[in-house]
Amino acid sequence: xxxxxxxxxxxxxxxxxxxxxxxxxxxxxxxDGLLAxxxxxxxxxxxxxxxxxxxxxxxxxxxxxxxxxxxxxxELMAEGEGLCDEMVVPAFDRWVLDQGFESARTLSDIGVSSxxxxxxxxxxxxxxxxxxxxxxxxxxxxxxxxxxxxTILLASAVKVAWRRPRPLTFRADFDKEDRYAxxxxxxxxxxxxxxxxxxxxxxxxMLVERRGTGVGTILGASGAYLGASLVAYLRIAAxxxxxxxxxxxxxxxxxxxxxxxxxxxxxxxxxxxxxxxAPLRPDPGYHPLVTWGGAF
Length: 296
Known about the structure:
The protein is 58% helix and 0% strand. By secondary structure, it is mainly alpha-helical. The chain has a domain at 2-10 and 35-54 and 92-264: Vanadium-containing Chloroperoxidase, domain 1, CATH 1.20.144. Helix 5 packs antiparallel against helix 9 (215-237). The chain is elongated, with a radius of gyration of 22 Å.
């Protein structure tokens, strides 16, 4: 996925040099900067609530036995292991309990980190062949950080409030220490999936606004969503999330990744700069990106 981010950047580097300096986003450094950093910080602090549950079973009160025989079979299997009862898992999620491979968790962490870099690569690559690269790169970075901060905040708040046990708590092939960790009850919804799809949506908006809807945009957006989908699959394979967790995470991330950049989109922004692309809006000429008032 790191190579995918580089490929997105190369697509933008191929564009012609643009002398005019029109802003793509309208952002206020004091307000939007504080919102971006504040939301991400609060989200990470909420995530730390999990440590108060270390050593406690996430399965208290979670048992449902259709028959006496199934109850006896489960009690024999779970004796001394503190396993969660899989009968509480909806049928469409239950297949996840038998998935997985050892390195999926590490790969998903690498994947989400790469996805978070993608909009930064696109934003700075787009800025490189313009007369105002630092301002254009800074505005793209601020919008990206705000997108991720809001996504992390919402995911953390829902996880701490919902406290759904992760799939790994239902199988004895995970250490009891892992199954009794505070993090073991933060399954809904998938933060990795939400952040990855927020990144893919943000990349898509950036490409459409700056490059139009040509082949390069289609390839770049497809690569971004493919990378996000791979991260979501790896979270299932790691038995960190159920299918419903990653689907909700993907939907939430996609919504935030589209809304945040569109809210900041400047009415004075020019249309796509790729050869032959039709402008999305009129080009008003030169506008300074940085003012003494602190706006980009």
